[in-house]
Amino acid sequence: MGVHLQSASQEIRRLNNNCIAGPFIRGIVLCSCGSTGRVTSSVNRLKKLVEMDIFDFVLSFAGVYTVDSLVVPALGRFVENVYIYDMDPWTALVQSFGEDKHALNSTPVMLSFAQFRTLPNNTQQRVVDTRVLAYSNFPDARPWGLDMYRCSNKCCGALAHDMTFYPDGKQWYGKRWLDTEMKTTCMKCKQTQRKLSAPSWVYACPGENLGRVWYRWPLSLAQRMDIGITE
Prior knowledge:
There is one protein chain. The chain is an alpha+beta fold and 231 residues long. It is elongated and about 65 Å long. The longest helix is centred in the N-terminal third of the chain and has 16 residues, at 3-18. A hairpin with a 5-residue loop joins strand 3 (109-118) and strand 4 (124-135). It folds into two domains: 3-134, no CATH class; 143-226, no CATH class. It contains six helices and nine strands. Strands 1-2-3-4-9-8 form a six-stranded mixed beta sheet. The chain has a three-stranded antiparallel beta sheet with strand order 5-6-7, with no helix packed on it.
C-alpha cells in the first residue's frame, strides 16, 4: 500500500479518536477480478487491511472476470449509500449490488468490513467480518451463488460449467426460496445427484432480494468439501 494512502488512513483514525466530528469511515474499492477477491491468500491479505485498522472496509470482486459497464452503476450506489446516506458497509452493499440483478449476476462481490459489538461491560469491541454477496442462478451454473461448485465424484471433480443444475421436487418461493432442493448432473462422468439442500452456511438476503445469498469468505476446508472441492 502506498505511503500517502497509509498516512491518510492513519490521520483519519487519529481524527476519529480525538475529534467530536465523525466518525469518518475509511474504505477502499478494488475494481479487479480473478485472484484478488477469489484466492484465499489474496483475500486474507485484504482482510488484514481491515483487521489492522487501516481501513474500515475493503470491497473487491470475487468472480473470474469483471465487466466495468455492469458493475459501475451499482458501485456508485454503494459509495453513495456509505458516504451520503451513512449506511454501514454491509447494508450499503445489499441495497446496491443486492438490488441490481445485472451487476450481481456478472460477478459476486467480496466485502471485508469492521463493525462494533457492545460487550456486557458497556465497552465496544471492533469485529471484522468478511462476506461474499452472490446471485444464485441454476441455469448459469451458480447454484446458491457458488460458481466454484464441483462434481462430488472424487474421480472426476468437474467444474460447475461442466455440470447442469435444476430445481428438484417442490420449488419454494418468497422467504423460503432457498429451501428448494437441487438436482445435478455431471456432463463428464454422468453422475446424477438429487434432493441436494443448500449448505447451512449459505444465507438468503432479507427482503425482496430473491436469488441473492451471502456466505462468509474465504471458505473453510470443510465448506469447500461440502461443494466438491478436494484440493
